[in-house]
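Two folds, back to back.
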Amino acid sequence: MALLTDADKKNIQRVWAKLFENPEENGKTIVIRLFRDYPETKAYFKTIPTEGNLQEDPLVRFHGRRIMVALNQVVENLNNWKQACRILDRLADKHKNVHQVPAVNFQSIFQVILNVCKELLGNEFSTEVSLSWEKLFGLLSEQINASYMSTSKS
């Protein structure tokens, strides 16, 4: 997959700046939408509730913020891809070896993030911007999958 162009990076950073203005709220929305759209992913969330009034649950909000912070670290390193890959390698290692989450679940959350962006930003999340994000998520998936293949369970 091709690396991101300068225009892609600008598209991603512009959208991300808006999403990261409220990481707890937007992260909570992503977690709840993940559970709704991909109910099979609930099995991997052992420490947070997956049913009930998730809108008000502080653990859902906390985990949503963790997702946002992790993605923020990657977005902050778009111009330092080696560092972004190190961040992704640590994330993949933990999700594979500690939480036993299949790599395919990252595809699910990436799709949820795209859908949430479209809903929150409307026309501002244009086709061009969406394609930049899809390219980023393709690169992230490649790196995560490579990391899953190269790490062994400790």
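---
second:
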Amino acid sequence: MAAAAAAGPRRGRLGREARASLAAFLLGASVAALPVALGSPPALLAAPGLRGRLALALHVAGVNAALLLLYPRPLYKIAVRACFLGFAFGCGLLLSAGRSAWRHFGWYMCSLSLFHYSEYLVTAINNPRSLSLDSFLLNHSFEYNLAALSSWVEFTLEKLLFPELKQITWLSTVGLLMVIFGDCLRKAAMLTAGSNFNHIVQNEKSDTHTLVTSGVYGWFRHPSYVGWFYWSIGTQVLLCNPICVVGYALASWRFFRERIEEEEITLIHFFGEEYLEYKRKVPSGLPFIKGVKVEL
């Protein structure tokens, strides 16, 4: 649940799932060190050659073998996902190096992989009881995956047809700043909400729930949604994808409008007048979204 309730069990310690995921993420990200090991240019993925491809294949095989040896089946499922995200992050760093035409896509890979991994890690810190493989948000929804695929297709086609469109560094920098702001705001919201932040809207109130109105919740009623909204649009500004910028903005706005209305019905049921007073004082944070209408 994004807007609100926090309290409960002790948090802040890294359990074995979090430790395994962090080690696996860093192990996957170690692909970024391959140029040093090979004595190759930093932009290894821009033109890998046979030697570079072989090194990447051996790295993937070696890391996967290490995970199989280190972790039992339940932890392996966590570790292999975290390692995949770390590998994507490391590859993004390699693409970002130098002046490759794929440089900005490297920024995007780093942003996307770090977003998904940090969703899992922060959940592990805040609310380990709700932690699952779904906490990576890799299988968020069919629509989410389709949107990601659409952005990759648009970037590739436009890079082939209008290569100069993908080299507007100042615009990609604006997108990267949007991504950083959005992800930091979302993670701040998750940490502020504490142990009752959940990726699934909760329909039952616990005796320990309290309404959080401090920190970033003093700025917006739904800071995690505000962060995700601007993060998602920022990824497409970063890629200089004009079609997906519009598509992401409209689709995200519609999704969060419906999600906020659904969630606020629950929050009013949980907290009554206390939440209504908070709703009157603090905006939702998203443009033209006021939340559920309450008839007095």
